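BUG: 3D viewer hangs when loading the predicted structure for this chain

Environment: internal workstation, default settings.
Expected: structure renders.
Actual: progress bar stalls at 90%.

Input used:
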Amino acid sequence: MDSINIADLKDELDTLIDRLEAGEAVQITRNGQPFARVTPEALPLPRRKPIDVGALEALAKRLPFQEQGAGDFVRMMRDGDRY
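Structure tokens produced before the viewer hung:
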């Protein structure tokens, strides 16, 4: 994180904004002592694609049916790896 003196802040505001847009945090100092930190706002998460329900149903139909219940299957795996 880079720092900028408060006396120079007014003259370099455009540069500060450019650095914030690039994702950089900047520390502001007064008399050589840090007193503030400016960080960029968190960027929004990218939008997710909608779920293709038809493709999901087609995949589920291709999977083999499991006769054993999930609880029994997990218990079998847990007991088999215990010792």
